[in-house]
Amino acid sequence: MATAGTLESGDILIELSPSARKGIDITLDSSVSYQFGEQIKKVITETLNGYGIDDAVVVATDKGALDCTIRARMAAAVERSAGVDIWDK
Amino acid sequence: MHRLRRTMMFIPGNNPGMMQDAHVYGPDSIMLDLEDSVSTTEKDAARFLVHNALKTIDYGGIELVVRVNPLTGEFGRKDLLAAVSGGAQVIRMPKTETAQDVADLEEEIDRVERKLGCEGRTQIMAAIESAQGVMNAYAIATVSKRTMGIALGAEDYCANIKTTRSKEGTELLFARQTIIVAARAAGIDAFDTVYSDLNDMEGFRREVELIKQLGFDGKSIINPRQIEIVNEVYTPTPKEIEKAKAIIAGIREAERRGSGVIAVNGRMVDRPVVMRAERCIELAIASGVISKEEVYE
Fold first, then answer.
1. What are phi and psi of A59, to 5 degrees?
2. Is the Cβ of A67 closer than 8 Å to some Cβ of chain B?
3. ipTM, 2 decimals?
4. How far apart are CA B100 and CA B146, in angstroms?
5. Chains A–B, number of C-beta pairs less than 8 Å apart
6. Does B16 sit within 8 Å of A69, measured CB to CB?
7. Binary contact (B57, A66; C-beta < 8 A)
């Protein structure tokens, strides 16, 4: 499992684990889950798909993160879990 | 018009809450930091935060600066790629000791820009934070055309010269003056260091007044309350503005007459006076005290 992010205002805490099942399984805790829950899950899924990950378990605790912050935290979690360096070119 | 850089607001690159709000306070520049304010274990995450913030957040006309880690370490090159591909306008390089340090950074920027197809876009701000850096200030300021300014980093500088920072700043005088003179000789901007005591706004104001008088273009800011004070100090007085307006009017009159001699109130006015007047008007317009039309209608 890899973790990225914090519980500070404006941030999102991501715990990323491999999954035995197909698909991205997201558990989201957010004070705006009613208004933005689908959008947050969409950004999480799109970011993972962008890195070629179609199967994963994500536990996300959102504290009002913008989409760019969610993308950044997901990317960091992917980098940490895979042990790869996305910037190493 | 020369871009104003009175305030450069310093934001830790691992703090998304601050990064998304920074522009609300109206600094002239924002510096997203990947270096000393970010712990080693979070450098990877901060790099993504800064990259994504640069690409997504609308900072308006505020200049976007990213402080990267030194190229010689394990983080610097990746920081640079993330910053340049994110669209950073300026790269602040910490702890610049020699002209070669700047040349090495420029070479890496050239390489990244070529790959991305955005050649010539990124500028450099070299932070001088040691005795050696101060001694090499002019070489550092002139080695690369990408360099838009040099800055003083006082905390590391004081440690390097084996003293501590004082309110009066006596220990910084030589460094400050050297950096200003080097910057002016090179035709670039000079930036002063952070003032970290947020409980002493009077002390901060005194320091801003000092560095303005010394000739600095602006200062690093770590709290929005500091922005207002810097802008106030850098706002020309009504008397200064009236005098500058008279000089500009004198120039335009001379142009209309086709004369090379500018006279204001019966006295000849030469180039340095004209330049000071133009700068005064620039600052007055940026501070919202007068409008461009008032001067240049």
1. -110, 120
2. yes
3. 0.95
4. 14
5. 59
6. yes
7. yes
